[in-house]
Amino acid sequence: MKKYIAFTAFLIGLSFFSKAQLTDPEIHALKGGRVKPDSSYIYALPFSPKSKFLLIQAYNSKMSHAGELSLDFKMKQGSKICAARDGMVESIKEDSDKGGLKSEFMNDGNHIVIRHSDGSMAMYWHLKKEGVIVKQGDNVLKGQHIGYSGNTGYTAFPHLHFQVQDANGRDIATRFYTRKGVKYLRPGKWYKAL
Ligand SMILES: [Zn+2]
């Protein structure tokens, strides 16, 4: 658990200094939907079918994602979070009821980390207290309900922070099934799970 606490601090606190793995033009192309043929895994949106949320920050957004490839969906607390991909639950935290935009809350984010078969890991962050319904070691299926959103940890408003890292711990941009086809997501848009 300790290493994830350190890891969270790294993600959030030091994200300013970490390097994105994509160049600015590549990120620009992703945001603009101009993407070359792509064989990467296609994720499910990490919430329940038919529900719809606004993406506030996406890859390298300026507010708190500079240099980081992750997604923030604005979400009323208690919204259902679902696995974006099959995997095994690597770690969870659900005992916190603290959150806000203060560094003292950095380690208070409830979360689920799921490891995928290729060694990559998805992180679902800021969940509500007692808002995790899977256990460490559980195998989960894509689309399975795994928890409830909240506002714990370093966060300005209730939302889900979703992030995927490859087996080497590097952030990777992920594409999703959406109502309008397979897409890399763009901030300021609403996305509805299939
Ligand atoms: Zn975030």
What does this structure look like?
The protein contains two helices and 15 strands. It has helices spanning 2-13, 24-31; strands at 42-43, 52-57, 70-74, 80-82, 87-93, 99-100, 110-115, 121-132, 139-140, 145-149, 153-154, 159-165, 175-178, 181-183, 190-192. The strands form three sheets. Strands 2, 3, 4, 5, 7, 8, 9, 10, 12 and 15 form a ten-stranded antiparallel β-sheet that branches. Strands 1-13-14 form a three-stranded mixed β-sheet, with no helix packed on it. It has a two-stranded parallel ribbon with strand order 6-11. The chain is globular, with a radius of gyration of 15 Å. The model is unreliable at 12-20 (pLDDT under 50). The structure holds zinc ion. Zinc ion (ZN) is lined by residues 57, 64-65, 70, 72, 161.
Mean pLDDT: 88
Give me the Rg, rounded.
15 Å
What share of residues is helical? Answer: 10-25%
Report the major sheet: 10 strands, antiparallel
* Succession of helices and strands: HHEEEEEEEEEEEEEEE
Name of the CATH superfamily: Glucose Permease (Domain IIA)
Strand content: 35-45%
What's the CATH architecture?
A: Distorted Sandwich
Taking the alpha carbons of the first and last residues, their distance comes to 33 Å
Number of domains: 1
